[in-house]
């Protein structure tokens, strides 16, 4: 349902459903971010991306033995966040 609302330009209803989810997965995060971006809500898309990065950091901090995969995942995530932040500031 979330994806359907997001794709049909009803981002308010999509966000309502997103906020009610007891557990959000990569599909729900991606659907909501894409819905915002597709419907001209770049600031909201970026803010949601920042939120997912903050949640990812919390999970990363809980990892007892960080390996190259976990480190690379965080580095790529932060690099994309910086890239998107720089893009939104230049437009």
TrEMBL record:
One GO biological process term: RNA modification
PPR repeat coordinates: 25-59
Single GO MF annotation: RNA binding
Alphabetical list of InterPro entries matching this protein: PPR_At4g14850-like_plant, PPR_rpt, TPR-like_helical_dom_sf
Keywords: Repeat
Cited Pfam families: PPR
Alphabetized PROSITE patterns for the sequence: PPR
Keyword Membrane: no
Protein name as catalogued: Pentatricopeptide repeat
């Amino acid at each position: 349902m979330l994806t359907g609302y997001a794709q049909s330009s009803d981002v308010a209803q999509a966000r309502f459903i997103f906020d009610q989810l007891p557990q959000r997965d990569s599909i729900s995060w991606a659907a909501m971010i894409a819905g915002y971006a597709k419907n001209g809500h770049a600031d909201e898309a970026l803010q949601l991306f920042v939120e997912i990065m903050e949640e990812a950091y919390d999970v990363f901090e809980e990892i007892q033995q960080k390996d190259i995969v976990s480190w690379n995942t965080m580095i790529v995530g932060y690099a994309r966040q910086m890239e998107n932040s720089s893009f939104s500031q230049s437009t």
